[in-house]
Amino acid sequence: MKLSTLLTTATLALLSGVQTVSANIQFVTPDANTKWTGGTTVQIDWKDDGSQPSLDKFTTFSVWLCMGSNAVPLCDTILGPSGAAFSSASTTTKFLVPDTVGGNGDVYFLKMETVSPTGGMAVNFSPRFAMSGMKGTFSAAALAEQKKGDTTPPTGTDTTTPAAGAPAAGDPAAMAKVPYSMQTGPTRYAPMQTQPGTKITAKSASRAYPTSSYSVFKSRGPKPGPVTTQTLTWDYKVTSLENTAAPAPTPTKGAKADLQRVLRRWRDDVEN
């Protein structure tokens, strides 16, 4: 799948005040041991790390080659053409790394922006890796930032928003009306338990809700997104009534004798 340029690096400034979150994309390649040669075609791979939002929440993505520090990542080189679609079923792609964007060194890393159709995006960074065979030079700004000595990648951010009409997070009553499989986040909500009526009118059994599909894992899957399910508490009052039925009569002499015989048999079994 080809990569696209959908957003400019100016979006980094827009994200400066955004709270950072756990990355939903985890780079597999490149990693800290990767050594690429400038001017060659390389392959990148990633996977869903299991946190929210999941990869199927995105529709487009872009990748940049970066250098600089964690505080000021310099991501001026877009990799790949524009117009590519993102699919959770495809987690690999190839592109040409230009050899004129900088010098040699283990100061490079990738930035991937995945865009949600409901608004916002997730920004994730790869580990830093080495480039050789480079014919360019580092800018003064890049050299200044690289002197800070960062060896880990910057922290990712997530500014995705829920779909239009979706209830706000933290509203259990509204969230419980959303089908469970369509809810996101570590906490899911279930409607309150239904109570039986005062009369039985049904002549045959029927399903209260339609069945749902499922898929069987053929290999170890990612860690589950949901952690807790909260069921809405009752919004009605339950009234208890005293049982006015007369107690059962005292057992007859014959029934009492039968009970004593059973007790003696039980005692003999225990003692033996």
From TrEMBL:
GO BP annotation list: (1->6)-beta-D-glucan biosynthetic process; cell wall biogenesis; fungal-type cell wall organization
Spans annotated as Disordered: 145-172
Domain spans labelled Yeast cell wall synthesis Kre9/Knh1 C-terminal: 176-256
Transmembrane segments: none
Biased composition regions of type Low complexity, renumbered to the chain: 151-172
Signal peptide segment: 1-23
InterPro entries: Kre9/Knh1 (IPR045328), Kre9/Knh1-like_N (IPR018466), Kre9/Knh1_C (IPR008659)
One GO CC term on file: extracellular region
Pfam families in alphabetical order: Kre9_KNH, Kre9_KNH1_C
Record-given protein name: Similar to Cell wall synthesis protein KNH1 acc. no. O74684
Organism: Pyronema omphalodes (strain CBS 100304)
